[in-house]
Design goal:
By secondary structure, the chain is mainly α. The relative contact order is 0.23.
Length: 283
């Protein structure tokens, strides 16, 4: 019963994130700086409310790590939103998911973790998918590719910082730090790039924080109700949701090589999750 509930939670989470990604794509006249600002400001309403309601201290214990996570995460978010302006949303989301590869590399050097040879093979499969997209998909914008790969690299570093924080901080405290800094970063960069939203754009901008928060909450609930090897692969439904929305709402076209590259990226990462779960269970 818990597994079914966890799957339902993760499907809700991935759909919420897909909606958020689609809104970012829709807001063509609004800068990525403003999108970061409104997405973060909207989530702060929920994170601050949760911490105050449950009397959880807003200031954490590991301030250096919390601030580092907030800075790196904010920059990763900004770069990803910038990449969506240049790429089809399904491709952008797929490329962002190579973050675990960068996390594994960082873990080797910063956490002294060991990565098994078979895991590297699975990572190479995913990277091969990136090369297919770059080499054969003529619709892939080079600027967008660079932006999303930098976003993924920073996202990989976020995983390492969160791993260092461990369970010493409440998850909402970590997210709150992230949203505070992202709001400041987006607001500061928007000063000289401000475009006053028109009509329904206000509603879409305010909904960014709502969808982002729903995605985070239900993802957390999913992982709390079932093991990672069952739930983590379902997260890749975000790519399917986002690409489908891209086709029907934005008229995006995905070539054979687009699908092939995306399949290699996601396939390699799912194989890695499966292998890690088998290794853990064997131990």
């Amino acid at each position: 019963m818990k597994v079914k509930k966890a799957i339902k939670y993760m499907l809700i989470s991935t759909f919420a994130f897909a909606c958020m990604n689609s809104i970012v794509k829709y807001l063509t006249d609004v800068s990525a700086y403003q999108i970061v600002f409104f997405r973060s400001l909207g989530s702060l309403f929920f994170t601050f409310g949760f911490l105050l309601r449950n009397k959880i201290p807003i200031i954490g214990k590991n301030n250096t790590l919390l601030i580092s996570r907030a800075i790196v995460g904010s920059l990763s978010m900004l770069l990803f939103f910038m990449s969506v302006k240049h790429l089809s949303i399904g491709t952008a989301v797929s490329l962002r998911y190579v973050a675990p590869i960068f996390a594994a590399i960082f873990a080797v050097f910063l956490l002294k973790e060991k990565i098994k040879p078979l895991q590297w093979i699975f990572f190479l499969i995913s990277l091969f998918g990136v090369f297919i997209l770059k080499g054969y998909d003529n619709q892939l914008n080079t600027s967008g590719l660079i932006l999303v790969m930098l976003a993924s690299l920073l996202s990989g570093l976020v995983y390492i910082i969160i791993s260092k924080i461990g369970k010493s901080e409440h998850p909402i405290v970590i997210v709150n730090y992230f949203m505070v800094f992202a709001t400041i970063l987006g607001g500061t960069l928007s000063v000289n790039n401000w475009v006053t939203p028109k009509g329904n754009d206000w509603y879409f901008l305010m909904s960014l924080g709502v969808f982002g928060y729903i995605g985070q909450v239900y993802m957390t609930k999913a992982f709390q109700n079932a093991s990672t090897n069952i739930i983590a692969p379902i997260k890749y439904f975000e790519v399917i949701y986002t690409a489908t929305i891209g086709v029907f709402l934005f008229g995006e076209i995905y070539t054979f090589y687009s699908f092939l590259g995306i399949s290699f990226i996601i396939g390699g990462l799912i194989l890695n999750i499966w292998y890690k779960s088998k290794t853990i269970n064997f131990k």
